[in-house]
């Protein structure tokens, strides 16, 4: 199915009574890679969690739609079924559920009842994805993320991404804690999905990931909103010069969300 669009309009989000997101606007079409950058504590992870329906986050204003359908009205599992995928900044450990079982039930949750993925096909696809990402086959039989190193967790998120083939992926600091070789492998995994059926929002602090995954657009968040957007050259300038020039340009003194801009 070509042509998915995730549209975030004037999104306001509160956590325990404090407004963190203050009107985020962002549209991601399948076929596009968007990078979201910004100083610490400016609302990037909050945006990802709110889109995926984390219960702590209260949407007080605005909308999120996928192909015109209201994402915020969907249960979390319905969001996944609709084609959204979130790789969290800190993936949680799930004791008692192997990576393999988790993948299989996630795939089946996206399919209709009675149309579960045949076991042999699942194993074949998983083996291919493990090979592609150079993940040891034994990892699939370990409990999900339990005792995984930081880099192993990130690679495991990309394993899920490859196998679930969402329409829109949101990847929060997928590059954090990766060694140079792992960074290339993770980028290779993301690029594998690059086609007209897949769009991606990549939250990152560093240009080095964007050396391998060229974004179509780069957005900067400050004060809980997107304050500047541009092409790949924007990320390069940030790498070279930091954020001060944007703050000066926009008259922002304190970029954190606590501050009223
Ligand atoms: N559950 C929570 N309770 C209270 N405050 C929160 C909660 N979650 C987030 N915040 C606050 O919201 C602000 C934005 O946090 P968020 O995690 O979205 O930032 P970020 O842009 O992802 O930062 P980083 O680059 O460090 O990952 C921070 O000041 C954070 O302390
Ligand atoms: Mg974050």
UniProtKB/TrEMBL annotation:
Residues 6-248 form the ABC transporter domain. The keyword Nucleotide-binding applies. Gene3D superfamilies: P-loop containing nucleotide triphosphate hydrolases. It holds the Pfam family ABC_tran. SMART domains: AAA (SM00382). The lineage of its organism: Bacteria, Bacillati, Bacillota, Bacilli, Bacillales. Keywords: ATP-binding, Nucleotide-binding. This is Fe-S cluster assembly ATPase SufC. Belongs to the ABC transporter superfamily. Ycf16 family. Transmembrane segments: none annotated. InterPro entries: AAA+_ATPase (IPR003593), ABC_transporter-like_ATP-bd (IPR003439), ABC_transporter-like_CS (IPR017871), FeS-cluster_ATPase_SufC (IPR010230), P-loop_NTPase (IPR027417). The keyword ATP-binding applies. It comes from Salinibacillus aidingensis.
């Amino acid at each position: 199915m070509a042509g998915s669009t995730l549209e975030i309009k004037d999104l306001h989000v509160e956590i325990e009574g404090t407004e963190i997101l203050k009107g985020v606007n962002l549209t991601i079409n399948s076929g596009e890679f968007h990078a979201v950058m910004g100083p610490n504590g400016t609302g990037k992870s909050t945006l990802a969690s709110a889109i995926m329906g984390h219960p702590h986050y209260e949407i007080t204003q605005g909308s999120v739609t996928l192909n015109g359908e209201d994402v915020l009205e969907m249960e979390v599992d319905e969001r996944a079924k609709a084609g959204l995928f979130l790789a969290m900044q800190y993936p949680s450990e799930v004791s008692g559920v192997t990576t393999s079982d988790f993948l299989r039930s996630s795939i089946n949750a996206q399919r209709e009842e009675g149309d579960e993925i045949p076991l042999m096909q699942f194993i074949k696809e998983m083996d291919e994805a493990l090979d592609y990402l150079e993940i040891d086959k034994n990892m699939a039989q370990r409990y999900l993320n339990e005792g995984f190193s930081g880099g192993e967790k990130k690679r495991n998120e990309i394993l899920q991404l490859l196998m679930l083939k969402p329409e829109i992926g949101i990847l929060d600091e997928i590059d954090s804690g990766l060694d140079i070789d792992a960074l290339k492998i993770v980028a290779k995994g993301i690029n594998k999905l690059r086609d007209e059926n897949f769009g991606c929002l990549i939250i990152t602090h560093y240009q080095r990931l964007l050396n391998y995954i060229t974004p179509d657009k780069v957005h900067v968040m400050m004060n809980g909103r997107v304050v500047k957007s541009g092409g790949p050259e924007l990320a390069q300038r940030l790498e070279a010069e930091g954020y001060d020039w944007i703050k000066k340009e926009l008259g922002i003194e304190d970029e954190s969300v606590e501050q009223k801009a």
